[in-house]
Amino acid sequence: ENFAVPKYLTTMTFFTGFMMLSTTGTSLVLFPPKDIAGMLRNDTESINSTSTDYGHIVREFPAAVFNPTSPNDIASLILFSNNNSDEPFRVAARGQGHSVRGQGLAPDGVVINMTALSKGSRIVVSESPSLGSYADVGGEQLWIDVLHATLDHGLTPVSWTDYLYLSVGGTLSNAGISGQTFRFGPQISNVYELDVVTGKGDFITCSSTKKPKLFYAVLGGLGQFGIITRARIALQPAPNRAKWVRLLYSNFSAFSSDQELLISTSGKMERDGFDYVEGLLLMQQGPLDLSFYPVADQSRIASLVNQYGIVYTIEVVKYYDDSTKDTVDKVVEKLTKRLSFVPGFMFEQDVSYEEFLDRVRNEEKMLQSLGLWDIAHPWMNLFVPKSRISDFDSGVFKDILLKQKVPAALILIYPINRNKWNGRMSAVIPDEDVFYVVGLLHSSGFNEWQAFDEVNKKLLQFCHVAGIMVKQYLPHYETPEDWKIHFGSNWQSFQEMKTKSDPNKILSPGQRIFNS
Ligand code: FAD
Question: Which value does ipTM take for this structure?
Answer without folding.
Answer: 0.99
